[in-house]
Write a structure and sequence with these properties.
The protein has about 200 residues and is an alpha+beta fold. The protein contains 4 helices and 6 strands. The longest helix is centred in the N-terminal third of the chain and has 43 residues, at about 30-70. The N and C termini lie far apart (about 115 Å).
């Protein structure tokens, strides 16, 4: 009976020792290798995500350039724009331009198709109407009256000559120039739309 009890005690100790061996901590080298593999996999995923994001932006930029050169309408967000009334002229202006360089036909289509604050009678301004916005005394880069915000210097007008060339105004220096409406990639500017109450 005493032998049997000792055997049980010895067996219990052996089992306990075996369990401790199974739960022994992982060697430091193994933990280090696993940490390096985890870091590498995480870095690889981050690098791949960044690459896909850059590739997507590059693709969008190339598509916009192709559409611009082909003279096709470019869909541009109009949600961020607001309206400002110039009390000196009675004209209502979009506070922001269309957001990207376009040719004259695209600028004209943009204004004609614009619906803003329930109004649909938007158009490109005449060159004389554009000139009422220019204020050389302003310190900002593109010198349009506040609160007008321009992201580029050249803005298209709806004024044209008999040859079909359109006037544009440079809000950096106040100069005006004419460009062919079929000018392709080299003839580009922004659309700033206007309307007059009752038109």
């Amino acid at each position: 009976m005493e032998y049997s009890a000792k055997s049980c005690i010895f067996s219990a100790c052996a089992c306990s020792s075996a369990g401790l061996e199974r739960r022994s901590p992982e060697p430091k080298v193994a933990r280090s290798n696993r940490a390096r593999r985890t870091t590498y996999n995480f870095s690889s995923r981050i690098g791949w995500m960044f690459f896909k994001k850059c590739l997507s932006r590059l693709t969008i930029s190339l598509i916009l350039i192709i559409l611009l050169c082909a003279g096709l309408p470019v869909a541009i967000s109009q949600d961020a724009a607001g309206i400002w009334e110039d009390s000196t002229t009675g004209l209502f202006w979009t506070i922001k331009d269309n957001g990207s360089d376009v040719n004259w036909n695209q600028a004209n289509n943009y204004c004609e198709n614009l619906t803003l604050e329930g109004q649909t009678d938007w158009r490109l301004p005449t060159i004389d109407e554009l000139k009422t916005l220019y204020d050389r005394s302003l310190s900002k880069q593109y010198k349009a009256k506040d609160p007008i915000e321009l992201d580029a210097a050249t803005v298209w007008s709806g004024s044209m000559n008999n040859s079909g060339d359109a006037w544009s105004l440079n809000f950096f220096n106040g100069g005006s120039s004419m460009s062919p409406t079929r000018g392709g990639c080299n003839s580009s500017g922004r659309a700033l739309c206007v309307r007059k109450s009752g038109e």
